[in-house]
From TrEMBL:
SUPFAM superfamilies: Concanavalin A-like lectins/glucanases. Gene3D superfamilies: 2.60.120.200. The keyword Transmembrane does not apply. The keyword Lipoprotein does not apply. InterPro entries: ConA-like_dom_sf, Galectin-like, Galectin_CRD. This is Galectin. One of its GO terms (molecular function) is carbohydrate binding. Keywords: Lectin. It comes from Dicrurus megarhynchus.
Length: 139
């Protein structure tokens, strides 16, 4: 019952404080990277604003995040206490929307915060997932 990757889905009603996005999956055996993005619509041209893009890069053991507003990528953030993903192992990512920020949890542990760069939370209505993983559950 895996979702096909790359995946693009609609967030009903958009984001708001208190809303949580759950992504559960299994990392591929020989992963390079995978990404989870919350965007304002699905448009490719012009590209939709990206409220937050989370990208796990296995070669560098980095979990980077950024946003793209009006076609301009912002400052990338990469500090993490540890790299939480293991090849061929399941994971659970939760993105909790709070008033000033997203809080990111992996397997129940809070990993980092990302302060909103897109103010209109309700416009953030699309989730995109791609890369070296299998999706088992979205919520």
């Amino acid at each position: 019952p895996f979702q096909v990757v790359p995946f693009c889905g609609h967030i009903k009603g958009g984001m708001r404080p208190g809303k949580k996005i759950l992504v559960m999956g299994i990392v591929d055996l020989n992963p390079e990277s995978f990404g989870i993005s919350l965007t304002c619509g699905e448009s490719e041209d012009p590209p939709a604003d990206v409220a937050i893009e989370l990208k796990a890069v296995f070669t560098e053991r980095q979990f980077v995040r950024n946003s793209c507003v009006a076609g301009e990528w912002g400052e990338e953030q990469s500090s993490i206490p540890y790299f939480p993903f293991i090849p061929d192992q399941p994971f659970r990512v939760e993105i909790l929307c709070e008033h000033p920020r997203f809080r990111i949890f992996v397997d129940g542990h809070q990993l980092f915060d990302f302060y909103h760069r897109i103010e209109t939370l309700s416009a953030i209505d699309t989730i995109k997932i791609n890369g070296d993983l299998q999706l088992t559950k979205l919520g």
